[in-house]
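Entry:
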Amino acid sequence: MFKNLRFHRLTGPWPESEQELSAALSGARFEPCGPLTEKTSGWEAPAADPAGTLCRRVAGIDLLQLRSQSRLLPPAAINEALEVRLDEYRDRMGQEAGGREKRRLKEQTRESLMSRALLRSERTKGFMFLSERILGIDAATPAKAERFLEYLPAPLRSVEIVPLAFQRPVSDLLTRTFLGDAPSGIQMGNECWMQDPSDSRARVHWINADLTDTSIRKHVREGMKLTHLGIEVGSLMSCVLDETGALSKVRLLGMDAKEEIESEEPLARFDAELVLLAGTLRQLIDLLSKSLGGLKSGS
């Protein structure tokens, strides 16, 4: 359901009901690319709900989904088609096209190809913890998370939205956990990234490794900076936690092997997985807050 997560905290009003939030999002509902449209983004139903509402509220969680659609038109394809037009111009006019004419022909070429270009969609899910006012966005990069926030309608953007931060840096918890002093409820996994503080290009990555090995731990003791660490939360979820508090490789443990109950509706299974994941993420945020001195002022 979620592979990466970046957390933000909101202050201010939020729609009181699923219907009210859906209505607020409807002004920016997703519309497919038109024949000459290169890219479009908007909100769509986050689950296969017959009602088709633009959000889903389950157990104090609002789930949203932003869809972006773009036309795939590689520059090489434009340039190749442009060469044909330039040859035709040369044969017709008896001279090479000048700079202004080349630009005009290139724009014509691009427009003629645009309507035939293939379409690609990208979907970004996000969820809101209503009581905590914490928003999680499935984004591998800060830029992707910002794009999600930018498409929130004006009434929702009017609230203050800041990255979730703690009194002490997350890197403190990464180092403690790596060196064997993990807080209760968190276990170290088998993946980590380190970086030389004096050279950002000097990085090392261990995966599927025994991180308790002294030959690996000595790098941190000798000054390497731990930037990412694989962890497990309450034997329910595994992920990689980075020094900014972002998560990657999020996976609910045991979900791959669970038996499907034929009589259970797909939407019910979807809701059950969402509730389980959200509960585990709440537990992780609470553990981070307690271990790092609470939430930072303004977060």
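The helical segments are 18-25, 75-93, 99-114, 142-150, 154-157, 170-178, 214-221, 266-291.
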